[in-house]
Structure formats: C-alpha cells, structure tokens
C-alpha cells in the first residue's frame, strides 16, 4: 500500500478561548493536489502553519511521510518545502546567494548543478546577480518557487502561491507547479482564495468555514453537489450558509444570484 | 514573462540527481554564509563594527594618558583603563553581534524560512554564536592595534589569560544575547532596543574600570554574582603584577555555565511559546 504523504487526524487548535481549527481530518496521497478553501479566518493558514511545524496544535495527530511531526519533525524537514506570503527571502542577498544559502540549509551537496537547473527552468539566469529585494513581484515569485523546490520536496505546502500576481505570471506559476508534480509525484497542499486556480490545479478540495471542514470532494463533485457551474459559486453558497440542495431531489443548475440578492 | 512551462520541457529525474546530505555543519555554514554575504555586500556594516571600539579606545586612551600624570593608581598599571575598555567591548560586541544576527532574520522576515527547514534550534544558536565571535573580532582587532600604536599598550601582553578572559566575556555576551532574543520572541520587535540597552544594566556592577571593593556592600554581592566582575578583577590582578588568579577564573567560568544554561532555557521556552501562539511567521511584521 502506498504511504500517504499527509495524514491529519482530529486536529484542533485554540488560541485561549478562540477555536482556530476544529477537529479536522484529511489526507493527501503522493501526486495529489489538495486545496484548503475558505474565507478569511476559516483556519486555512493555521492548518498550514501547523503542518509546517511553526505552530503547535492543541490536539490531534499529524504524520508527514509517515513521521509524527509533533513529536519530531526534523528527520523529514529536508523532504518538505513551502511558500508563504508571511515570509520573505533575505532582500539584500542576491538571488544566487539566496539559492546557495537554501541549498546548504537543505543539505544539497551539488548546489551548483541544482541552481543551474532551477535557473534554467524558471528563467532566473539574468536575475542571479541581482539583489532579491530589487525584483518585481513576478520575479520574486519565481525565485520563491525556486526556493520552494530547491530540495525537490515530496510535500509542498503553499499558502496563496499566486496572491498579488498578474494573471499571466499566476498562470505561469500554476503551469510550472503542475509540471513539477507530474515529474516528481509530489503531494501539494495549497490554501487559496483563487477559485480558478483551485479548479485547475486540485484533485480534491476541502471547504473550510468557521474553523472546520464543512464539505469536501473533487471540484466536479462539489459543482454537482451544489448544482453550480464554478467553484466560486460553491464557495459563496458555503460562506453564506445557503443550504445545499437535497441530493435525492432532482436539481437544475441554479441561476447566478443578482447583486441585490446578497 | 517566460512562456508556459511544459512537462516535457522539464528535465527528468535521471538527468540531474539531487545529492543530499544530512549535515549539521552544512546547515550552520548556511546561516554563517547568509550573514557573511550580507556583511560583505555592505561596507557600512563592517565600518560600524570597527567604528565604536576604535572611537572608545581613542577617547579612553587619551584619558589614561591624562590620568597617568595625576593618579598613582593608574600609574601603577599603565594601560589598565585601555585594557578594561577593550575587554568591555568584547562583552558588548559579543552580545550585540549575537542579538543583531538574530534580529536580522526577523527584520528580513526570514525566520519562518529557518523555522521550516531542517535547521535545528541548537544549530541556529551555534551559528549565531560563531557570527557573534566573527563580528567581535572584526570590531576589536583594529582597536587593539590602535592601542599599541597610540599608547604603547598591548592587551596581548596579558598572554594566555587574555584568551580565557576573552572566552568568558564571549560566553557572558551570548547569554545576555540569548535572553534578549528570548524576550523579543516573547513580546515581539517592540523589545529590539533591549539589544543595545541590556548590557549597560550590568556595567556599573561589573567592576570594569574600578575594583569591586569600591562598590557599596550590597552591590558587591551582586557584582560577585556576575561572571564579568571576576574577569575584570582578574585582568587587574595581572596588570598589577599579582599574576593570574585561577580562583577568579573558575568563579567566572562557573557563573557563566549557570547563566548560559538559564539563557538557553529561556530561549527554548520562548521558542516553544512562539510555536504555541504562531508568532514565528508573524514576528517580522
């Protein structure tokens, strides 16, 4: 049996009296992309932070690549990587210096070849000598992707990977991630507000609301279940507590709501 | 913008194999390299490291020369003030070097990258200690040469004990640096000014420029509870031709072990609280 890449069971996190994550369970298989979808404060970033090991859960178990990361996360940290809007790469270092730093941090012995390969693939060659802080948002994102893939991770955790990018750059990043996954069979868990991104990249979607998973399924299953034509409408149905149609009754696709209905 | 990447255009696994090594040394080297790159790219940073110790030594050196003609105490041991200034700067630079390297990670919002990497906290602290030693040496060495050149006072004449004094002051500097970092982890960057201020809290009772006996009785008790006072007393003992005092050295070393253990405990506790409250990804903001 293939080992699951991510296994989360009964995960809870509370900050004093505020429950940020309420008893969630899910798993991600190798080669699978799963999205955490939900409004602001739904618990997506908290869940990803716990998986990254920078936030301790109140209860529950998490196994990444079979390793209990609450007990000891270090044996598998070199097989995982991430990208988050909450962290930056050191701005005063050049792109090359940053990549060397992360190669060493992740124990990559053949750093030169790895950087050459990633620079080729992500078209960073012309940027290698430039200070990371002087790059445009799109260029920075490509460098961040290079950092996130520097150790060829088996699990990639992405928190809003294309936030604040123009559609062209965002599309390019998605294509690259898809290509990377096809090549390496990596598991990807991403938190996003971008529904078209989720529809395009993800095999499975976990809908979060009020700190818990309220629904899940493949994008097409969710569309069918809510009788909607796109995930944004499903998202709005869940966010606004519109009742899910009774699956035993025949359904017709709903009409989109008018602004006045909201 | 580059064109859309195609799966076929990416090299297969067999083209370039990733060679990984689980090496503490490599991870420590990574953090050191990151700080050395930063330092190398900015001459004001290197200049700043050397500036204060050099200015201090110039001011105190001339003050010593003035006192030499007016004070029998100083006349007994030429260079006692100059040596004290240099050793005090070792402590100050060690603490500041440690705290600044840590702050640099917070300012650049890189602490999250380090926390979500194979780098263990103990390796991170080890890197900060080495960076602190590098920063201290860059700052202090020019000042020692100025002292030789201008005042004919060579701290190197202390001989082997200089290494022992130096290492004891470095350890004390790391302990204070660790406590400052623990505080910053706990309360955020609002406490960053503590990196510059804390060390001066212990300056009056560290017997840097005067013996512990000068202090009021209750302050003397506090002074002997710090590893710094025995170091400066030990330095004076040598300069006043009383030789190396092993008892003072062991006193300082023992206290240092206690302070370092407490400081590490505090840092690990703060790190744990930061993980519990989710501060590691937000602290740079």
Q: What is the element layout, followed by pairings?
A:
The complex is a heterodimer of chains A (262) and B (285).
Chain A: E1 6-15, E2 18-28, E3 33-38, H1 44-52, E4 59-64, E5 67-68, E6 80-83, H2 95-105, H3 111-121, H4 137-148, E7 155-159, H5 167-184, E8 187-192, H6 195-201, E9 204-209, E10 212-217, H7 219-225, H8 231-239
Chain B: H1 24-40, H2 43-68, H3 72-76, H4 80-107, H5 111-115, H6 121-151, H7 160-187, H8 194-202, H9 217-223, H10 228-239, H11 246-277
Helix pairs in contact in B: 1-6, 2-4, 2-6, 4-6, 4-7, 4-10, 7-8, 7-10, 7-11, 10-11
Descriptive tags:
heterodimer; A: alpha/beta; Rossmann fold; 6-stranded mixed sheet; 4-stranded antiparallel sheet; 8 helices; 10 strands; B: 285 residues; mainly alpha; globular
* Global Rg of chain A: 19 Å
- What is the overall silhouette of chain B? globular
Portion of residues within helices of chain A: 25-40%
Rounded radius of gyration of chain B (Å): 22 Å
Secondary structure tally: strands of chain A: 10
What is the average of the pLDDT values of chain A? 88
Q: What series of H and E elements makes up the topology of chain B?
A: HHHHHHHHHHH
Could you name the ranges of chain A where pLDDT drops below 50 across 5 or more consecutive residues?
253-262
Task: Give an account of the 3D structure.
- Chain A has 262 residues and is an alpha/beta fold.
- Chain A has two domains: 6-217, P-loop containing nucleotide triphosphate hydrolases (Rossmann fold, 3-Layer(aba) Sandwich), CATH 3.40.50; 219-262, no CATH class.
- Helices cover 32% and strands 24% of the residues of chain A.
- Chain A contains eight helices and ten strands.
- In chain A, the strands form two sheets. Chain A has a six-stranded mixed sheet, sandwiched between helices.
- In chain A, strand 4 and strand 5 form a beta hairpin.
- In chain A, helix 2 (95-105) crosses helix 3 (111-121).
- With 285 residues, chain B is mostly helical.
- Chain B has one domain (23-277).
- Chain B has eleven helices and no strands.
- Chain B has helices at 24-40, 43-68, 72-76, 80-107, 111-115, 121-151, 160-187, 194-202, 217-223, 228-239, 246-277.
- In chain B, helix 4 (80-107) packs antiparallel against helix 6 and helix 7 runs parallel beside helix 11.
- The chains are: A alpha/beta (262), B mainly alpha (285).
- Chains A and B meet through helix 1, strand 6, helix 2, helix 3 and helix 4 of A and helix 1, helix 5 and helix 11 of B.
């Amino acid at each position: 049996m293939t080992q699951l890449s991510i296994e989360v069971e009964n995960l809870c996190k509370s900050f004093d009296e505020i429950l940020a994550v309420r008893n969630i369970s899910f798993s991600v298989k190798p080669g699978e992309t799963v999205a955490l979808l939900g409004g602001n404060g739904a618990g997506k970033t908290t869940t990803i932070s716990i998986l990254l090991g920078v936030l301790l859960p109140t209860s529950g178990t998490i196994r990444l690549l079979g390793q209990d990361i609450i007990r000891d996360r270090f044996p598998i940290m070199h097989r995982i990587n991430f990208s988050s809007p909450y962290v930056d790469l050191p701005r005063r270092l050049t792109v090359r210096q940053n990549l060397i730093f992360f190669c060493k941090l992740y124990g990559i012995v053949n750093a030169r070849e790895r950087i050459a390969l990633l620079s080729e693939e992500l078209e960073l060659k012309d940027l290698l000598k430039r200070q990371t802080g002087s790059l445009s948002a799109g260029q920075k994102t490509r460098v961040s992707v290079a950092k996130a893939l520097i150790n060829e991770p088996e699990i990639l955790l992405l928190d809003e990977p294309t936030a604040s990018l123009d559609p062209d750059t965002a599309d390019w990043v998605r294509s690259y991630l898809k290509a990377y996954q096809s090549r390496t069979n990596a598991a990807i868990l991403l938190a996003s507000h971008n529904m078209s991104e989720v529809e395009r990249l993800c095999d499975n979607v976990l809908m979060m609301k009020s700190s818990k998973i309220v629904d899940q399924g493949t994008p097409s299953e969710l569309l069918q279940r809510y009788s909607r034509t796109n995930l944004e409408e499903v998202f709005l149905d869940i966010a606004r507590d519109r009742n899910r149609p009774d699956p035993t009754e025949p359904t017709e696709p709903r009409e989109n709501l008018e602004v006045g209905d909201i | 913008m580059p064109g859309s990447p195609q799966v076929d255009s990416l090299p297969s696994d067999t083209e370039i194999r990733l060679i990984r090594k689980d090496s503490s040394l490599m991870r420590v080297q990574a953090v050191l390299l990151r700080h050395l790159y930063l330092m190398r790219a900015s001459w004001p940073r290197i200049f700043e490291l050397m500036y204060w110790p050099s200015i201090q030594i110039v001011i105190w050196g001339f003050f010593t020369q003035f006192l030499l003609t007016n004070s029998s105490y100083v006349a007994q041991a030429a260079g006692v003030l100059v040596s004290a200034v240099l050793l005090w700067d070792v402590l100050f630079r060690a603490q500041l070097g440690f705290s600044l390297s840590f702050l640099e990670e917070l300012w650049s919002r890189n602490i999250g990258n380090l926390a979500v990497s194979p780098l263990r906290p103990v390796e991170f602290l080890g890197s900060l200690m080495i960076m602190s030693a590098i920063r201290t040496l860059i700052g202090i060495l020019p000042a020692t040469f100025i002292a030789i050149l201008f005042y004919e006072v060579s701290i190197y004449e202390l001989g082997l004990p200089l290494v022992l004094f130096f290492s004891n002051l470095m350890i004390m500097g790391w302990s204070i640096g660790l406590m400052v970092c623990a505080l910053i982890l706990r309360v955020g960057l609002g406490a960053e000014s503590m990196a510059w201020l804390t060390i001066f809290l212990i300056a009056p009772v560290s017997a840097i420029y005067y013996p512990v006996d000068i202090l009021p009785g209750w302050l003397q008790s506090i002074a002997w509870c710090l590893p710094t006072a025995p170091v400066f007393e030990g330095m004076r003992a040598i300069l006043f031709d009383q030789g190396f005092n092993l008892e003072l050295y062991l006193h300082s070393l023992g206290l240092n072990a206690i302070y370092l253990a407490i400081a590490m405990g505090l840092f690990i506790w703060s790190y744990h609280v930061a993980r519990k409250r989710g501060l590691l990804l937000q602290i740079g903001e």
